Amino acid sequence: MALDPIHAFYCRKDYLTLAQACKIKSGGVCARCGGIFDISGLRPHHKIELTLDNVDDPKIALNQDNIEVLCHDCHNATHRRFGSVVGTKRVYLVHGSPSSGKTTYVESVATRNDVIVDLDKIHRSICICGLYDKPDATKQIAFDIRNLLLDKIYHAGPRRKWQDAYIIGTFPDVYDRERFIAEYNAEPIHIATPREECIRRAQEDLQRGAVLDMVLGWIDNYWKNYSER
Predict the structure, then answer these.
(1) d(CA 209, CA 215)
(2) Cβ neighbours of residue 27 under 8 Å, at least 6 residues apart?
(3) Residue 7: which residues within 8 A CB-CB, separation 6 or more?
(4) Is the distance from CB of 168 to CB of 117 less than 8 angstroms?
(5) Which residues pair with 44 in a beta bridge?
(6) Distance between CA atoms of residues 204 and 200, nearest Å
(7) What is the pLDDT of residues 173-229, one digit of tens each?
(8) pLDDT tens for each residue of 13-71
């Protein structure tokens, strides 16, 4: 089986040579915590994260100025974004009104090793319809796929290959939200965009009247049912 392109990059001789040079140049000092370590225990880290779009760009992938040398703990904390330790399963429930920016937020903080459960995108992936067009014929399949992913997240242990999980949903009712948080030991992230801004975004983004009316209805229904402690 072919290696993941980014994994393959980390095995390349030119990168390994650069990584070793960076570790030697560091003098054993971690760039984050300032601790002093044997260089064999240090890890080179790309400040601009490598992706499939930039892994072949030497100005990013092989740029010494884009590499900082970290100790094992700081490197793990950096890749987990929210400070989790090795093996710990982190689950985030990202909730809020339709058009509040939940997906945009997740796309700004998640890494390529994270699992993202987004019912809208799941539904779109199994039919030819647009983002807001959810035919009854495929709704149950989309829910089944989402439930399968949630089950995998629920039962995942420290030896899983993925890193963190982001579950996107509206969850306007506080009791439903807290029950889900307790069941998955999730950290809630509320995208608290005001109702008027959600409506403005929907009106700006959507042109078709029927689709706009439908999304505005979802927003209105969310705020009618939204509750806090």
Answers:
(1) 10
(2) 36
(3) none
(4) yes
(5) 69
(6) 6
(7) 999 999 999 999 999 999 989 999 999 999 988 876 788 999 999 999 999 999 886
(8) 899 899 999 999 999 999 999 999 998 888 899 999 888 889 999 999 999 999 999 98
